[in-house]
Each structure stands twice: as structure tokens, then as C-alpha cells.
Input
Amino acid sequence: MLIGAHVSTAGGASKAIARAEDIGAECMQVFASSPRAWKVPPMPDAEVEKFKAESERAGMGPTVVHGKYLCAIGSPDPELVEKSVVALTAELQTAVRLDALGVIFHPASHRGQGFDAALPQFTDAMKRVLDGAPGDALLMLETSAGSGDHIGSKFNELAQIIRSVDDPRVAVCLDTQHVWAAGFNIADAEGLEQTLKEFDSEIGLDLLKAVHANDSKKELGSAVDRHDNIGEGLIGKDGFRNIMGNKAFADVPFYLEVPGFEKGGPDAPNVEIMKEIRSEVAA
Ligand SMILES: [Zn+2]
Ligand SMILES: [Zn+2]
Output
């Protein structure tokens, strides 16, 4: 189990590696371009080579690329779906070029049309993204907190998408805060067992390829996506001991997306807490 974090690529993707090292991260998540703009300018070859050389030098674990928050392939607006497919394809192409594990994206909202109505277009969009970015990088659906019309707070919805796309490159990233907000009590031993049992029967634990490790500012079942620093939120350090001690997560990389104790994003203290918990549960 590697402990990683989301880090900034300001100044170029290769600059992210030193930032990850600075906070003690063993693997990292990055954006392929600004998460709040549609454009994904192609990364220059030289930057890709530098990134790979830096990763190698630092002995970094698997890199994941986080998709844009703007993307919504379940939306009834065809223009939005089209833009989302173009952006996600470019992000997956970047992930392939960086030898990254894959792209993690939010299934986002069906915007009132209903999950069943959105499923065929969602499937078609994912197939187009995969076809447009050949290679080994995975396309990972992230579990959602379930606010409004957001897809993916129920494992069954992700399972339907996965079966419908039917491609070995489709996998899942479990966000600890999102599943907590969606009503899964992963902080509790029995709650975690039930959650993993449901995940396994619906999706299959073999498709769990990444974890977003975030504590929660909001209560269990709140459906609100609000991350907290590890130990400062309602999942708490005991909750993370419970999660990290479970064998289902033994070989899955963890990526922090926490606000940071100084509000500057994932930081050394959060990484250190996760490493301490990891050694406690291994003992
Ligand atoms: Zn997340
Ligand atoms: Zn979130």
C-alpha cells in the first residue's frame, strides 16, 4: 500500500515529482491541464520524457491523472457530452504517454434525465474515450458522494456502467470521503466488511485500482462532498486504521486530496499520519 497525494504541476508536469517527494508521497495524482478550463494542450514530448526520468529517479509509484471537474458524460446536453469526451480522451492520451496508471474521473450528474436514460450515452462516451487513447492506461470511475443527480454513489450504478462498456481498461477509484457521505460506514469494522462485500458482489474487488484517501467534514450519509485532513474529520484516525488494516486495500495506492493543515492542499503532516497508521496496522 503506497501513500500518495495530489500535487500541482505548475511549471510543467515534471515539476510535480519534487513536490511529491517534498511531502513524502510515494505516488502521486496530477491534472493533465487546468481542471477548470476545457482545453487540454498536448504535453510537449520533452516534458513527457523529463517526467518519466524524474519519476524513475525518485522511485515514484503509479501516477494517476485526475479528470476535469467540468466533464459530465451523463448529461442530456449533447454539446457538454462532446466537450467532455474530447477532454477525457486528451487526458487519457496524456496518461498513456506518461506511463501513468490511468485517469480517474467523476461520473458527474445525469442532470435530471435519470441514470437509466443516461446509461447508453455514458457507455458510448466511455468507449469513444478508450478508442481515442489506445494503450494500457486505465479509465477509472470514481465513487461519488451522491448529491443531487450524481451518478456513482451506488456500486450498482458503477457496475452497470462497467458491464455495459465491457473493456478491461475500465476500473474504479474508491474515495473514502465520498463513500462515507454516500452512507457506507467504512470507519466501522462491520460497516467496512458490508461495504466491501457489496463492492465485490456488484463490481468485483479486482477492479478496485486506486483510493482517494480523505477524511470527511460531513456526517455519514450526508451526500455532501467535503474533504477533511486525516484525523480531523468524522472518519478519524481509527476509521483509517480500520480501512488500511483491511486486506482488500493491501496492494492499492492511496492518494490524498485533503485541504492540508495550512490549507495548501495535501501536505507532509497528512502523509506522515497515513504512514504511521500503515505501520500500526502492519504490526
Ligand atoms: Zn476524490
Ligand atoms: Zn471529493
